User: Fold this.
Amino acid sequence: MTGSVSGERRADSRARGDAREDQEAIDLAADWADISQGLKKDLGQQLYTQWIRPIQLGRFCKETGTLDLFLPTEFSANWVSDRFADRLSLAWKIARPDVRHVRIAVHPGRRALGDLRLPREGAKPAADPASSFQQGRAVGLPGDAGHATDAMGLGSIGLDPSLTFASFVTGTANVLAANAAQRMAAVETPQFSPLYLKAATGQGKTHLLHAIGHAFLAAHPRARIFYCSAERFMVEFVQALRQNQTIEFKARLRGFDLLLVDDIQFIIGKASAQEELLYTIDALLAEGKRLVFAADRAPQALDGVEQRLLSRLSMGLVADIQPADIELRRAILEHRLARFSSPTEVPADVIEFLARTINRNVRELVGGLNKLIAYAQLTGQAVSLALAEEQLTDILSANRKRITIDEIQRTVCQFYRVDRTEMASKRRARAVVRPRQVAMYLAKVLTPRSYPEIGRKFGGRDHSTVIHAVRLIEDLRTRDADMDGDVRSLLRQLES
Assistant:
């Protein structure tokens, strides 16, 4: 009888344990639903669908406070960990204070695709296979013991090992910001502080922030660095207020040698956080410390920011990063392609097509290349222009500027100083024929119009005439530097 009662108690205990586990799984799923919806709003439908939606919840260990998040391949786990680890960690910390670490890993039993993984410059190889990306990488959360606040290692302060000066491609659009960033990280004391990097989304300001952190640590091995977004700064400040730890927060913040704050525009309207940032800037500058801020607009354009803070943000150097021109976009693609650990042949016409078409920001450009190569390697297909147009439909459609044949004709006529009526005339003088052929070539390259449609816009010419003009200009570009220069100049004008 006693044995029967004991067995029933064990069964009840197991049932209660199972019920608790079920409830825990339900709670985690509910929290993840809220977090993922927030990420969807922040990142947009495309990024969310491609990278966040495939995430599956894994086990949560209450003893260590570690939550596992699984993705189907090492490529996706690598990408999400590199780009969204800090955001995911912060979101879970806010939703569930008992989650102290988020570990992003390949789903157990799924095929690991190491050949798709990009080399991470500055990253140290793991001493034990268990610490590799395939097993997952723990990501520290703000305020955790041993986290960024007083750490010496690169990864511990939230810096992406792949975002260095060596991996930053410089061109006329970003040379001032790149040179200023390198000066800020040098051993010598810079002539300006703070440095304020201003650029639209995806143009490289966050890359430069991380690069400054890496180079500063290399030049000052015992330096203490604090890197965060303005959003994270506010979350930590609010948490310190709620826990009556503002004195500790201020002391910790002012003990750093380099302060890196991204997306400063998100501190708009937060009076208490603005005031604390103002005092921190004054304290650090008085001690000769270095500060770098980044935002998508100039300091004077930050609405809702106190005037005293605006003056501090703009008192050093404001370095503007302009949108990348086609030469820089082409160089970025070639540089990125060379960094793939598994070589993949990408034809020159595909590089040219991506550089010309994806022109809104560098992040979309690199993302398009990564997606194209990943798809080609996963399916065993060769990279081609047709594959690029098929797989990058959303990115391409979002970037395409609607250029008309009338606009092309007007621009070409202004460039070569010929009358607009010559585009449709029957004259065959060389001074008229060559500009007309260039305009036909550009119409085919920059618009979706067919050969017969283009011919009709040029005085009702036959489609074979247009085909001849396109092939002729393509051939001349390879043999005649002047012609190639003319076409490049016209492309810049029409795409700007």
